[in-house]
Amino acid sequence: MAKDKKLVLSGDCSGCGICVTVCPTNTKLSKAEDFDINTAKLAIGVNNGTAFVDYEACIACGLCARNCPVGTLEMVPV
Over the stretch 20-57, which tens digit does the pLDDT of each residue have? Predict the structure, then answer.
């Protein structure tokens, strides 16, 4: 998709998890019969109250950034 941009964490994450639920990569993975939240290679997730990004899985669509209620996520040019 938009690989000319990159998702960055730019603030204090509240750990709400909205980013995880709106991510199309995560949604696609979760529909698989053998989906396991503990072993899946999610594009974005929350661990210990903070979002993390797997840049290999992230398609840089920006949905998480647009839906982040505290503005933690930001799409920036590469």
Answer: 999 999 999 999 989 988 888 899 999 899 999 999 99
What pTM, to 2 d.p., does this model score?
0.85
What letter does residue 71 receive in the DSSP assignment? -
Does the domain at residues 5-77 carry the CATH identifier 3.30.70.20? yes
CB contact at 8 A, 74 and 8: yes
Residue 75's nearest CA partner among 37, 48, 30, 44 is 44
Would you list the domain boundaries of the chain? 5-77
- Using the 8-state DSSP alphabet, how is residue 55 labeled? T
Structure tokens at 50: 């903070």
Contact 16, 73 (CB under 8 A): no
Alpha-carbon distance of 18 to 8, in angstroms, equals 16
